[in-house]
Amino acid sequence: MPLGRRAGAGRRRRWRVLAGVLITLSLLAASAVAVVVWQNDYDLREGHVTLRHGDTTLDGVLALPGSGDGPFGLVVFVHGDGPMDATHDTFYRPTWESFARAGCASLSFSKPGVAGSEGNWLDQSMEDRADETLAAVAWARARPDIDGRRIGLWGASQAGWVMPKVAARDAGLRFVIAVAPAIDWQRQGRYNLLAELRRDGASDEERAAALHRRETMLRLLRRGASVEEYHSAMRNAEGPEGSGGNEDMTADRWRFIAKNYTSDATADLRAMRGTSVLLVLGGHDTNVDVAETERTYRAILPPGTLEVRKFPDATHSLVRHDIERSDTALTLAALFAPRALFADGVLTGQRRFLERLGQTERT
After folding, report:
1. Which of 67, 78, 234, 312 could form a disulfide with 159 if both were Cys (CB 3.0 to 4.6 A apart)?
2. If 0-12 CB within 10 Å is exposed, 13-18 middle and 19+ buried, where does residue 304 land?
């Protein structure tokens, strides 16, 4: 065979191999996209809604069960800390779907200044957040597709200072699902600081320096210091700025902390004693002292109104501990199996709480 013919045959074989590889990669990519679309398709009917509260308009989502005309029970979502949109970057949707299977809709608004909502969430006190939640409940009660007798709250972390205020003022609320709520803002902050220092293997000297910076910050808050004074004090504090001092602290964030650092849920918990409460706690929570939270809830709320569910493998966000430790695992699970993000039993445990409430109402 002439050399040119052999070379041409070799090129054709290489092109066939390359074409086969490209086709295989394309099929794999298409399959991956199909899996992502399928796993992120929820049995819900989501609609965009708005709420006028005071001088601002909030953008939100009302997620109804996939079928039926209602009226449905409703879970109003109360966010934790941070600039959260209505879906919490889609993280809420598996929970919404679980609630929909119990016959309940879910309502969530983006925080002020987030997504399409007006305002600035850092301007809010916990009282402001409670007022906003009460407005959302009142808005929902006026809708024909919502059963106003079956409205409750779901909230995580910082919402633990908001929901008891709401339940104390609205006796018509049917339930509260409290996920990893703290009791006292200052004790929670200290617990979180020490837990993170232990996790990171901090030395005794680093621990002492961080606690010193924290006490300095609290003294500044108590005397109404400015954020500039805070930064100056942190620069002069022993050791580099770390968990006890934040060089990225903005003026807005400092004002937010100053408004809320004395928050304590105890009195409001006493005022909501007639509300059915599900307390949901994770075994790997470095943000909140869940043992203190459980003790306080049990001491204040009547046993007949309180149910406590503990998930040993769950973190503060109720995500599986083994997944949350790895950014790669967290990203892949969020894309390809978002329902599997949550520790075993988390979604079904909350759904069954709502189902039991529904059965009680029918009997």
Report:
1. 78
2. exposed
Q: Do 332 and 358 fall within a single domain?
A: yes
Q: Give the predicted TM-score (pTM) of the model.
A: 0.87
Give pLDDT tens digits for 115-135.
999 999 999 999 999 999 999
Q: Where are the alpha helices (DSSP H) in the chain?
A: 3-39, 93-101, 126-141, 163-169, 185-199, 204-222, 227-236, 251-260, 266-271, 290-300, 321-324, 327-336, 346-362
Q: Is 191 found in the same domain as 76?
A: no
Same domain for 191 and 166: no
The pLDDT tens digits for 146-164 are: 999 999 999 999 999 999 9
As given in the structure block, the two tokens for residue 240 are 């580099």
**How far apart are the C-alpha atoms of 349 and 345, rounded to whole Å?**
6
DSSP state of 159: G
Same domain for 159 and 296, yes or no, is yes
Strand partners, 46: 63
**Total tally of structural domains belonging to the chain:** 3
* pLDDT of the residue at 30: 44
